[in-house]
Amino acid sequence: VLVLAGTSEATDLAGRLDRAGVEVISSLAGVTATPRVRAGRARSGGFGGTAGLVGYLRNERIDALVDATHPFAAVMPFHAADACAYAGVAHCRLLRAPWVPEPGDRWTGAADLVAAAAILGRLEPRRVFLAIGRQSAPAFRRCRQHWFLARSIEPLATPLANCIEVRGRGPFEFDAEVALLLEHRIDLVVTKNAGGVATVAKLAAARSLGLEVVMVERPAAPVGVVEVATDEEACRWVEATVRGAGGGYIPTSPGPGL
Ligand code: NAP
Questions:
Q1: Which of 95, 108, 163, 176 could form a disulfide with 148 if both were Cys (CB 3.0 to 4.6 A apart)?
Q2: Is the pLDDT of residue 220 over 80?
Q3: Which atom of ligand 1 is nearest to the CA of 27?
Q4: Substitution site in 38, 43, 70 for ligand 1 pocket (most atoms within 8 Å of beta carbon)
């Protein structure tokens, strides 16, 4: 089973499958220099588009693929869906449920990072907590009127002006999140709607302090793909699939080079 990784669920799924006696290969994009240790085999780096992934599925004789990439991975889910349909490999996406606002939340939705930056661009100077990951921060480089606190696992790909960086990898606790927001006198939080429990504490902290949140919505995803929400469900899907059931995605085109 090939697990496209990059999330805590992917790490948990590799452990679950390994314990169940399944030969599992976790695939990482290679963007994090110190990824978590996980059960089974691991590989790193892109496959070389859809055609490269088809070749990998065939060479490694993959029976089933679980796409457990992050909800904001915008490209890999399409490559996975097309490659699996083309190669006849069963495929499902492990996608955690998005967060939904609760009473007391002050969220403004943004369709994507560009829209979020446009919202910030219209505001008077604020002290902004950017909790969006190291690769997404450059979207805010023109919002020079604001001061930023940016948290990421590794240094920002492109440093921002007026920005302090803090290193952090979830899970994060409510008390520590409140303390961080107070220490830096944050009055606006920008986050992606990643969902899950590991990084949700910042939203509870923002709610408790009455802070505004700009919530970036998820990118488009391939339609017709079997979806599961937890690593436990994904494991059950693998067991059922290896016994004969499969996914139902039909690609719109075979993609370049296929
Ligand atoms: P992306 O836009 O969907 O993918 C860009 C390219 O990176 C893909 O075309 C593929 O290259 C390669 N790639 C992505 N995931 C891969 C994987 N698991 N194994 C091998 N190659 C992979 O993804 P992204 O937004 O750059 O994210 C990269 C990784 O970071 C993903 O694994 C994702 O789960 C994780 N991550 C992303 C975010 C986020 O906010 N975007 C947050 C946390 C973690 P080829 O076309 O050459 O195969």
A1: 163
A2: yes
A3: 19
A4: 70
What per-residue confidence (pLDDT) applies to 43? 97
3-state secondary structure string across the chain: CEEECCCHHHHHHHHHHHHCCCCCEEEECCCCCCCCCCCCEEEECCCCHHHHHHHHHHHCCCCEEEECCCCCCCCHHHHHHHHHHHHCCEEEEECCCCCCCCCCCEEEEECCHHHHHHHHHCCCCCEEEEECCCCCHHHHCCCCCCEEEEEECCCCCCCCCCEEEEECCCCCCHHHHHHHHHHCCCCEEEEECCCCCCCCHHHHHHHHHCCEEEEECCCCCCCCCEEECCHHHHHHHHHHHHCCCCCCCCCCCCCCCC
pLDDT(94) > 50? yes
Query: What separation in Å is there between the alpha carbon of 33 and the centre of ligand 1?
Result: 14
Q: pTM for this one?
A: 0.90
pLDDT of 244 strictly over 60: no
Cβ(116) – ligand 1 distance below 6 Å: no
Tell me the CA–centroid distance for residue 75 and ligand 1, in Å: 7
| Among 25, 43, 75, 218, residue to substitute to test ligand 1 (most atoms within 8 Å of Cβ) | 75
